[in-house]
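Here is the promised in-class demo. Please do not try to memorize the tokens; focus on the logic of going from shape to residues.
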């Protein structure tokens, strides 16, 4: 069951990426809509991942440059 869910998500990602490329070359209106949705979801995911990464590793990032002494 989990494999089917992951395969479905992968299929949506691939279709979204194809629509982004097609829309950049002047595809039909529905392709531009799917492209805009794909880019919007990608922006949200990027923001969430950055938020998780900064809260997890934010305190140790400044001390890593001092450890080279």
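The designed amino acids, position by position:
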């Amino acid at each position: 069951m989990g494999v089917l869910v992951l395969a479905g998500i992968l299929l949506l990602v691939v279709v979204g990426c194809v629509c982004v490329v097609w829309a950049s070359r002047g595809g039909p209106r529905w392709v531009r809509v799917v492209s805009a949705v794909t880019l919007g979801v990608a922006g949200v995911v990027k923001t969430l991942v950055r938020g998780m990464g900064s809260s997890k590793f934010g305190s140790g990032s400044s001390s890593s440059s001092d450890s080279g002494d």
